[in-house]
Design goal:
The complex is a heterodimer of chains A (555) and B (308). Helix content of chain A is 31%, strand content 19%. Chain A has 555 residues and is an alpha+beta fold. In chain A, helix 12 runs antiparallel to helix 14. Chain B folds into 2 domains: 59 residues, no CATH class; 206 residues, Orthogonal Bundle (MetI-like fold), CATH 1.10.3720. In chain B, helix 10 crosses helix 11. Chains A and B meet through helix 1, helix 9, helix 16 and strand 16 of A and helix 2, helix 4, helix 6, helix 10 and helix 11 of B.
């Protein structure tokens, strides 16, 4: 490249160079005029976009993908019964015509006709039912099997290992391959029955665990993994490990969110810094997370004037307590620690305002959120904190642990200092090298220190922030928090007949949680993103992905 | 000579078995469950972990696991990693980039280093000599990531002469700057080694003889002096080839070169014994072969050295 640029500089006559630059500027003017005019600018319909991605952790099967790298690709390849609005995160019908229920227990799902998989076969009710059964069936070892735990007959297809994965015993063979709660009515209708009423079920089915699978998958899974076939706006072209995944527009796509460009490439980089440099030189079109070096002093705003954005997304950061350790049993201690953390100052000084102080357990970007659920317990107040600490009678110091492979050292040290200065509790940071080590300890319930935790919504609903995290036996309730009142309120919310009513009950449950402070909400995340000057109308969805339905390639 | 080479090649066999086993054992004994962190903040379902552990034989005793791995490896099968990608393909994709980058770095350090070394060695204590001494000291004292980022920002962003990141396939012309960054430290060493060696041999008897015979200056330097001064330099370059072929995590990271360094770095983080062992085995073989070649070169450079 260096050589060619030199050649261009020397060989191309000055007049031609002027003509080229003149052409560029007039084009820009035309684009601006078009946007202001009557017709909407949809850009180059045959354009290509490359977006930052990370290597999928597993083969591209929706039911076996539960991380952001593979998830972004799955969401482009597949479309579920519903999709989430990129701006408001509201759930909208997509492949489903309607999802109806009278008792929040039996849901009748009607599919739209004419939807096709990329191999030309039609999307039918059995594609959903088969896919859900496959994912839930435990010998298949799919990562998202637990998402079907609400469906009737789940325990017949999904068995647990009696002595954990380390023990000598194996999980017993499930008695059935299909869940009794799923019934096919006709080609385009099926019924899903939950074991207990579950009012927000229709909100969950837009998540990738609930995507349909074509017949080809069940015929030959290896072939499917090498060449995934979905029903989404993009179809699979190629994949080079460690480099990229290439997709192209599926022209028979029936959804409302049709893309305005043709080729989509997820490019994998050696690091965020390199990706940032690539966007600056127009090698890459979109990066959803600016690296710390670009955030410092707002550098990304000067590097990418008019081509940057900052937006909250559905993720938060908390401090979690191993409540099974008697040391942390006292709620007053937990409240004292929470009130001793100066969230405002830390988010400004350490994160340069890219985090917003949390005022509850639910993220503000999620439908169902209400302000101030945590109340005074999440507000910095050294005097009150001291009172609570005295009431708890706790003596000695505390330790906060975290993995250091994700850059958490700075804010934990700052948090510790805040606690130390406010209430005089000796606080030390205990670094652990890898995320998987923390996870392993938390899973085995062997934590003895306060630890960093976080949550990224699977689907945009207040329910996703409460049931898995704070209900007795919830799938991610690692601290073993248990409060009968909260459980009862959550069960009541699950059984509500409308989503509005359910949300109100979930909010009540969240207020009950504040009295126990099982985890300390710290702050909510925002994402800073940048894009190249080749693309326009760039938006970030609530799940921190590029909104593929709005982005255009400039002509 | 032939017997010597054969003996050296046979030595590779126990080294090969030893390193593969050591690597396998080391990665195997890293703390943490490789699958515990794969489901984000939620615990992975037991069924998933069981299925994965079965698939990768992780419940077998270490020796059985290693045995199964070696049976595959001897048939040319590097196995698959935890993402279900063929390790052979991963290495096949990454290694050409690493080799290209290493050759580029080697060429830059050898050419610039030798020329600068000869020039300064011949005219000691001159302005040029001081300049080279100071600039090599400078190169030795700054870490590679500083050189890398400075050149990327200056040449890539501000002047726009190079692409800030190397595009896929790593074309040669885009590797010049990364190669310079990678080779800069060794370049400084090569310069200093050559300079000292030349300065020493300048006063050697055979040089005086050559000059006295009336041989042209160019021939005296290129044939008599350089050839005899090259042994320490070649030793250094030889080990450096081995090191460069092992990938360069920092340089690859800055310029986004899809090489072997970051591949193995990430695999260690993910506790993928299969990937780490496959790559390291290859690197050990490359390193040993590079050393063998260096040893053979000694005999070419200095006929007094014999190997049988």
């Amino acid at each position: 490249m260096r050589r060619t640029r030199w050649l261009v500089g020397v060989v191309v006559p000055l007049s031609l160079a002027l003509a080229v630059s003149g052409c560029g500027s007039s084009d820009e003017g035309g684009g601006g005029g078009g946007a202001g005019g009557a017709a909407e600018d949809t850009g180059d319909p045959n354009g290509a976009i490359s977006t930052f991605g990370t290597e999928p952790e597993n083969p591209l099967v929706p039911g076996n993908t539960n991380e952001t790298g593979g998830g972004a690709i799955i969401n482009a390849l597949f479309t579920g019964l519903t999709t989430y609005d990129p701006v408001t995160s509201e759930s909208k019908m997509s492949n489903a015509e309607s999802i109806e229920t009278k008792d929040s227990k039996t849901f009748t799902i009607k599919l739209k006709k004419g939807w096709k998989f990329h191999d030309g076969t039609e999307v039918k009710a059995k594609n959903f039912v088969d896919a859900w059964n496959w994912t839930a069936y435990s010998p298949n070892g799919a990562q998202t099997g637990s998402f079907f735990a609400n469906i009737q007959g789940y325990e017949d297809v999904h068995t647990e290992d009696p002595d954990g994965t380390d023990g000598p015993q194996k999980a017993p063979e499930p008695t059935s391959k299909t869940m009794s709660g799923l019934k096919i009515i006709d080609d385009y209708t099926f019924e899903a029955t939950t074991a207990e009423p579950f009012s927000v079920f229709p909100l969950t089915v837009g998540y990738s665990a609930f995507m349909p699978l074509p017949d080809a998958f069940f015929k030959d899974q290896k072939a499917f993994e090498a060449n995934p076939i979905g029903n989404g706006p993009f179809k699979f072209v190629s994949r080079v490990p460690n480099q990229n995944v290439k997709l192209t527009r599926f022209d028979e796509y029936q959804g409302q969110d049709k893309p305005h460009f043709k080729d989509l490439t997820f490019t994998f980089f050696e690091g965020l810094e390199a990706a940032y440099a690539a966007v600056a030189s127009n090698e890459l079109d979109f990066l959803h997370t600016v690296p710390p070096s670009g955030i410092a002093g707002g550098k990304y705003k000067t590097d990418f004037p008019d081509r940057n954005g900052s937006q909250p997304y559905q993720g938060n950061q908390t401090l979690a307590f191993p409540l099974y350790d008697p040391k942390y049993k006292n709620a007053d201690l937990r409240k004292a620690i929470s009130m001793a953390i100066n969230r405002e100052e830390i988010t400004q000084k350490i994160f340069e305002g890219t985090r917003t102080p949390a005022d509850g357990w639910v993220n503000p970007a999620v439908p169902g959120y209400v302000k101030g659920q945590c109340g005074e317990f999440c507000t910095y107040n050294p005097t009150k904190a001291k009172e609570y600490l005295a009431k708890s009678g706790y003596t000695g110091g505390i330790e906060i642990t975290s993995n250091t492979d994700g850059g958490h050292k700075e804010w934990i040290t700052a948090t510790c200092n805040s606690i130390k200065n406010a209430i005089g509790l000796e606080c030390t940071f205990v670094p652990v090298q890898k995320f998987s080590e923390i996870r392993q300890k938390a899973n085995a319930r062997q934590m003895t220190q306060i630890y960093r935790a976080g949550w990224l919504a699977d689907y945009p609903s207040i329910e996703n922030w409460l049931n898995p995290l704070l209900r007795t036996g919830g799938s991610s309730n690692d601290g073993e928090y248990s409060n009968k009142e909260v459980d009862a309120k959550l069960a009541q919310a699950d059984a509500a007949t409308s989503i509005e009513e359910a949300n109100k009950l979930y909010q009540e449950a969240e207020r009950l949680v504040a009295q126990d402070m099982p985890t300390i909400p710290l702050w909510n995340q925002t994402s800073q993103f940048v894009w190249s000057d080749r693309v326009d109308k760039v938006r970030l969805t609530g799940l921190r992905e590029l909104d593929l339905s709005s982005v255009i390639v400039k002509k | 000579m032939g017997r010597y080479v054969l003996r050296r090649l046979l030595q590779l066999v126990p080294v090969f078995i030893g390193t593969t086993f050591l690597m396998y054992w080391l990665v195997w004994s890293l703390p943490g469950d490789p699958f515990a962190g794969k489901c984000g903040e939620r615990p992975c379902p037991d069924s998933y972990i069981t299925a994965m552990r079965d698939k990768f034989n992780l419940d077998d005793p270490l020796l059985v696991q290693y045995g199964k791995y070696m049976v595959g490896l001897l048939q040319g099968d590097f196995g698959v990693n935890y993402k279900d990608q063929s390790v052979g393909t991963l290495i096949g994709n990454a290694y050409p980039n690493t080799i290209k980058l290493a050759l580029m770095a080697l060429a830059i350090e050898a050419v610039i280093g030798l020329v600068a070394g000869v020039l300064t060695g011949l005219r000691g204590r001159s302005y040029l000599d001081n300049l080279v001494l100071v600039s090599t000291l400078f190169l030795i004292s700054i870490p590679v990531f500083v050189t890398g980022f400075v050149l990327q920002i200056a040449l890539g962003f501000q002047l726009g002469w190079i692409k800030p990141v190397v595009s896929s396939g790593a074309p040669w012309e885009q590797l010049i700057v990364p190669g310079f960054v990678l080779g800069s430290l060794s370049m400084a060493y090569v310069t200093r080694l050559t300079r000292t060696s030349i300065a020493e041999n300048k006063r050697a008897d055979y040089v005086r003889t050559a000059v006295a015979k009336g041989q042209p200056q160019r021939r005296v330097v290129a044939v008599h002096m350089l050839r005899n001064s090259a042994i320490p330099v070649i030793t250094f370059l030889g080990t450096d080839v081995g090191a460069l072929m092992g990938g360069a995590i920092v340089t690859e990271g800055i310029f986004d070169i899809k090489g072997i360094g970051n591949l193995v770095y990430r695999a260690i983080g993910a506790q993928e014994a299969v990937t780490v062992t496959g790559i390291v085995t290859l690197l050990v073989l490359v390193y040993l072969l590079a050393n063998l070649i260096v040893d053979l070169l000694y005999a070419v450079l200095d006929p007094r050295i014999r190997y049988d």
